[in-house]
Structure prediction request, 477 residues.
Amino acid sequence: MRFPENFLWGGATAANQCEGAWNEDGKGLSTVDVIPYGEDRMKVNRGQMKMLECDEAHSYPAHKAVDFYHHYKEDIALMGEMGFKCFRLSISWTRILPDGDDEIPNQKGIDFYRSVFEECKKYGIEPLVTIDHFDTPIELIKKYGGWKDRRMIDAFLHYCEILFENYKDLVRYWITFNEINMLLHMPFMGAGILYEEGEDKDQVNYTAAHYELVASAKAVKMAHQMMPQAMVGCMLAAGQFYPYTSNPDDIYKGMEADKDNYFFIDVQARGEYPVWAWKRMEKAGVSIDCTKEDLEALKEGVVDFVSFSYYCSRCTSADPEIVKNHARGNAVFAAVVNPYLKASEWGWQIDPLGLRITMNILYDRYRKPLFIVENGFGAVDTVESDGSIHDPYRIAYMREHIRAMRDAVNEDGIPLLGYTCWGCIDLVSASTGEMKKRYGQIYVDADDEGNGTFNRYRKDSFYWYKKVIESNGEDLD
Ligand code: BGP
Prediction:
């Protein structure tokens, strides 16, 4: 009951949720820098409230985050101590290109990530780099309206070329877009989309999705040309939709809800739109700007692996009464509460077997190696007077999920490249902007208002996860 010898155990972060230093060393402004903390956050995330700069009335958690920018050596040393084989992080587009499409990159940004990757190598940690993790440059929104515009493809490829050129000797594993299906749920955070008065949302969303898919495919091809060893993946916010009952109407509803998400990965992993996708667009009265060259590009840019985040399964019903009375789920994915499952304080339902189910479905669907690049438990932690942090709830969550993934590997024969738990170091929550929703094995002393010493502490889960990695997943006690 072990994992393959070269299994990539580790943890995951995103630039905007951990780096801070939002305007230091030449960094430009990005979507995530202007998404505020508090009740307006979701309105901005969803593209319903326009915010293209910061104002006095709001606070912005990403500005300081957990200050990884100035602590990365200490943080990577702690990851090394846990025995990490892999560290997933994202590059901030505007740290490299402050306006998103500058001809010459910002040298300080280039140097920063080089130093981060070199630090990883010291501990034998393989970096896994997300090129775009909820991170559209504000200047490109002002210029093009974000991913609504085809010119974003070239801007993205220019950015990719700079990354590949500068880091090809240090980075082998890449992901093009984080949770690409998030575009439908949080369009501003996912793709820099703001809806204009009277604009058809479906038209905008599918158009932006198409441009991202073409950009992703072209980046995969470029990566393979520039770095023959490279492995490039797509990334899905996963979690199967269960039907609320065995009523075929519920089953059908669940299947359709899943398609919203598979829409993207079907293209990235198979190289073409499924027939139902064209029908869907037609039904929605949408016509996308898709050229013959785009279709070629999609074919030539099929990913090497399918990565995904998994926090919970989802549940849905065709009965409007059920939906009305039981809708809750997490803030991002509206879902019906599954009566068989418990939930975290944030309403994310805990379902380890759902991970095994999701892995089976994804592997059957794509026949590509999988990579679990996010999974974890957001909770409030308490620091004891001696500095210790007891987080048995997080250990229990991880233990059960790792067990389920071990079963999927050993009993179902699913090829899995690795597991990077989300927020191995505490960081700012993407959906709520809170610090108190913590995922880490490493605690950071910072609160929701950005106050604190920013000192790092080891939680109980730190020692537990270290043992798991040491035993290559055998010892989960
Ligand atoms: C995913 C994102 C991450 C991360 C995680 C946890 O959707 O890729 O950026 O934040 O979810 O979500 P949250 O931070 O909202 O708890």
Remarks:
- DSSP finds 17 helices and twelve strands in the chain.
- The chain has a mean pLDDT of 96.
